[in-house]
Design a protein that fits this description.
Layout lengths: L3 E5 L8 H10 L1 E6 L7 H15 L4 E4 L1 E3 L2 E2 L12 H4 L4 H16 L5 E2 L13 H4 L7 H17 L3 E7 L15 E2 L3 H8 L1 H5 L5 E4 L3 E2 L11 H11 L4 E3 L12 H11 L4 E3 L4 H11 L4 H11 L10 H13 L3
Parallel strand pairs: 1-2, 1-12, 2-3, 6-7, 7-9, 8-10, 9-11
Antiparallel strand pairs: 4-5
Helix pairs in contact: 1-2, 4-6, 4-13, 10-11
Length: 328
Amino acid sequence: MTSATILGGIAGTVLTADEAAFFREADPWGFILFGRNVESPDQLRRLTDDLRKAVGRDALITVDQEGGRVQRLRAPHWRDWPAPLSQANAGPRAMWLRYHLIGQELRAVGIDSNCAPTLDVAQDATHPFLRDRCLGTDPARIAQLGRAAAQGMLDAGVLPVVKHMPGHGRAQADSHHDLPVVDADAADLSALDFAPFRALADLPLGMTAHIRFTALDDRPATASAAVIDAIRRDIGFDGLLMTDDITMNALPGSHADRARASVQAGCDVVLHCNGDIAQMRPVVEAAGAMGPDALHRADAALALRHPPQAADQVALLAEWQDLTRAIA
């Protein structure tokens, strides 16, 4: 059976019978977890096992574990990581170590993808909800650090999701609540905002931005064929492209309307994060089954999902601490 064009969430720390039955029928391509789903390592391992059993395959399970404010697995069971921007000056090796260690933590509980790194270019006007999640203000440096972060996760057996395509740094509104509008011209967007994504266009998974770029289209990027075309052609990204969470308030219409518009614009997978299966049912219907191009990209991404490299985590952590101590 062809998977549904959706990554779904659940409500709590255990998979309920109703949720399991829904996912068994809907067969989402994968799942996303949040803080509400996380209690302890043993609980999380059971949950990830149960999610995969519900769909009868080794489905991808992702999470937002950037560090700083956006971190779903936290102390006392997991390390609390500083915000990415605060670590940028420590260099690529420190960034590899940081995300390799994060990846090891995730794989240990059955999570094999992480919605990171954030490749958005931080600017003076970048909204506070995003700014310290970025890796800097220089596109070339962001690309260098982003590559190190992505490779650290891949070496830990975790697939990175680069975000937010084609660039969220100019946004002065929080897309969880409002639709940001960016008026920069197309040439400036291509030269600055798109540049880090272009440098990492070979990576397997990407996430859209809920932003309206007036130079490209009147519709939000997630639902804009013109912007998706820019991601595919200008940036050159041919990996699996998922939406940012369609339950965020930046997008107009019902959740089903948002899902339908995103798929029609060219997104491969719809991200539905609030864990409400009653709201997810019409989204699954509207999004439909994954088409051949999406399935090809999905298979190519999953083919890069390898067992984690053997690593001395104590030694790697000590090295990361040494490299970052000077900037603390």
